[in-house]
Amino acid sequence: MGKTLSEKIWADHVVRSAAGEPDLLYIDLHLIHEVTSPQAFDGLRLAGRKVRRPDLTIATEDHNTPTLNIDKPIADPVSKLQIDTLRNNAKEFGIRIHSLGDIDQGIVHVVGPQLGITQPGMTIVCGDSHTSTHGAFGALAFGIGTSQVEHVLATQTLPQSKPKTMAINVDGTLKPGVTSKDIILAIIAQIGTGGGQGYVLEYRGSAIRALSMEARMTICNMSIEAGARAGLIAPDEKTFEYLKSKPHAPQGADWDAAVEYWKTLNSDADARFDHEITLKAENISPFITWGTNPGQGAPLDGKVPNPADIADVEDRGAAERALEYMGLTAGTPFKEIAIDTVFLGSCTNGRIEDLRSAAQILKGQKIAPKLRMLVVPGSARVRLQAEAEGLDKVFLDFGAEWRQAGCSMCLGMNPDQLTAGERSASTSNRNFEGRQGKGGRTHLVSPLVAAATAIRGTLSSPADLN
Amino acid sequence: MEKFISHTGTVLPLRRTNVDTDQIIPAVYLKRVTKSGFEDGLFSAWRNDPEFVMNKPEHKGATILVAGADFGTGSSREHAVWALQNYGFKVVLSSRFADIFRGNSQKAGLLTVIIPQEKIEVLWAAVEVNPSLEVSVDLDAKNVRFADEVIGFEIDDYTRWRLMEGLDDIGLTLKNIADVDAFEEKRPSFKPQTLPARS
Ligand code: SF4
Q: Which of A88, A306, A464, B99 is most buried per CB count within 10 Å?
């Protein structure tokens, strides 16, 4: 019987396997940021251990960095302490770091691909759940906890038990105005936030093949919101093309050898998945979330659901609580929901294509009265690229704020937060209670819906602008 | 991590059940960037009370915590284990532990021992009469001894072996580090490295 893609990558990284024990997996790349690493380094220090492979490790500052006045000292003492600690640890243990102000600084999951250190067939870990982003290159990439960070630092390996495999087939052609964000929101609404638990998801089918690398990253990024260990997409010519010009792409003979290997990275025709689901691309329309978990989503054309119509008792209770928190009334058309803040950014949708697609809609338009819009590039390089293309002007002329790179309003850990009761349309990945600030209400949307919403002031898609 | 074969020390009798990890170490202490120095946060809410057992001079230097049932419930924070260890505890005895806490403690080398509630009561009573009572916890013999009492306990062989060898997860992997060396020998040269930096 054939192997699935994730089984192939797994097999290529088993350092040791023994009956009754998890496999010991080799880790090709370890990404680090300021929040989940301090105690891991302290653990090394207490035990007198070193980082085994500084050359397979890279750090950036992203989660609690400010996106304004980045040349000034960080005001929040906890953030400052974590960032200073990361800088000191990187220095002490010889790890490459891209600090605030550095041209390669940015959200850890934007920086890896952009440097070309994210490549097909790798194992990649980071103390952050959205590490699944890197799966877009056909890498097995997953988030880990702080004690595992320490384990990888010390040994470059991780004991792991083998996940199950799920194929998610998306066939057909997407309608105009529908993006990969809508695909993944539709998938999570279908399988639920626990539907991927214990699985590695492999996204397949003609609609996935048609997506750009950046759009693929958006899908893989949110695999974790379906509860999955990881999500991946087999590499193809688009992947190789994307990587070719990147700084850390293999050179010369290594490039040829790499491509030859990368071409073997797909699920065999006779491979068996533990589970399989299929979606038709034509049936997907712009999608938004109405509740407080990413599975509580629906097509934007619809209405706020009535919990009484939900058969499952637990889901019904969850929907009731969500509507209460979100301040929504059953039956309200989504397009009538007024928004206070639009956030365009994060490791889900903070890349150059996301900014371009939003700018195209905002060009020549004016922001809705009383609405604020934050545009936060995922990395310093994305910011520079956008400025080279004049996108910053488009955003500023429209009436949006143009910020420095970082996680920003994706999570309430830095100064960019919602206030209690404030309602956002956000291109990020989590709509949990308080995620964007205490009492904040989040609707997850695509960059296109974010842009149209900023123009109209209520949840909208570009089609509503005509 | 230190090897644990047996330990003899005095007892802190904590007559409370359902001590959750927020009580062991409150959330405000989680902002720190170290794994050490959490002793000041241990049971900090209760330590404001001069009558709290930990504030009594006769229990100074205790290394064995004897607690009520369901110790370590609540959030999975590993800081709870660090706080107990930082303060100087080597063993916690209870009739029941929360699973995640127990898992965390065993990985970090804090021995958690389950003995029946009636024996916990006997031990509490004995320590309250004589705070300097010496108690021995013997992982090799799998028993707890004080005065004339010998109380056997169960622990799975694998955890016991790890504790007696002083092997945390990293230590275990390092035992097999030759396998990692061998794997690295065969890694293809096209795999990326972060150093030297290119940008
Ligand atoms: S942008 Fe959001 S999801 Fe992504 S790494 Fe930052 S905080 Fe996590």
A: A464
Question: Cα distance from A389 to chain B (closest Cα, Å)?
Answer: 20
Report the pLDDT value the prediction gives residue A1, as an integer from 0 to 100.
85
Strand A287-289 to A297-299 pairing: antiparallel
Strands (E), A376-440: 401-402, 423-426
| B197/A contact by beta carbon, under 8 A | yes
Alpha helices in B2-156 (DSSP H): 21-24, 44-47, 79-87, 99-108, 117-129
Q: Ligand 1, from A60, A222, A224, A347: best to mutate by most atoms within 8 Å of Cβ? A: A347
Phi, psi of A239 (to 5 degrees): -65, -45
Instruction: Among A46, A58, A157, select the one facing B194 at the smallest CB separation.
Output: A58
Residue B155 CA to residue B162 CA, distance in Å, equals: 11
Give the count of beta carbons closer than 10 Å to the beta carbon of residue A438: 12
What's the token pair of residue A363?
Answer: 């060009």
The structure tokens 């301090």 sit at A38
What does the CA dihedral A248, A251, A257, A263 come to, rounded to 10 degrees? 50
Cβ distance B192 to A28 less than 8 Å, yes or no, reads yes
Tell me how far apart the alpha carbons of residues A256 and A252 are, in angstroms, rounded to a whole number.
7
Q: How confident is the model at residue A247 (pLDDT cuts 50, 70, 90)?
A: very high
- Considering the entire predicted model, what is its pTM? 0.92
Instruction: Give the residue whose CA is nearest to atom 2 of ligand 1.
Output: A410
B40 pLDDT band, cuts 50/70/90, is very high
Q: What is the pLDDT of residues B165-180, one digit of tens each?
A: 999 999 999 999 999 9
Q: Please tell me the distance from the alpha carbon of residue A366 to that of residue A454, in angstroms, as a whole number.
A: 9
* Structure ipTM: 0.93
pLDDT (tens digit per residue) in A318-334 = 999 999 999 999 999 99
Contact B33 A82 (CB under 8 A): yes
* Mean pLDDT (whole number) for A385-413: 96
What distance in Å separates residue B97's CA from the closest CA in chain A?
Answer: 21
Is the pLDDT reported for residue A166 higher than 80?
yes
Assign B74 a pLDDT band (cuts: 50, 70, 90). Answer: confident
Task: Provide residues with CB under 6 Å of ligand 1.
Answer: A 62-63, 107, 109, 128, 130, 346-347, 407, 410-411, 428-429
**DSSP 8-state class, residue A166:** E
DSSP B146: E
CA of A381: how far to CAs of A86, A391, B99, B199, in Å? 21, 13, 45, 10
Q: Using the 8-state DSSP alphabet, how is residue B70 labeled?
A: S
**What DSSP state is assigned to residue B177?**
H
Q: Which atom of ligand 1 is nearest to the CA of A348?
A: 4
Q: How far is the CA of A63 from the centre of ligand 1 (A)?
A: 7
Least confident of B73-77, B142-146, B159-163: B73-77
Query: Would you say the C-alpha torsion A282, A285, A287, A290 has a positive or negative sign?
Result: negative
Chain-centroid distance of CA A182 in Å reads: 14
Nearest to A291 by CA among A340, A326, A334: A326
Torsion angle defined by CA atoms of residues A384, A385, A386 and A387, in that order, rounded to the nearest 10 degrees: 50
Rounded to the nearest angstrom, the distance between the alpha carbon of A430 and the centre of ligand 1 is: 9
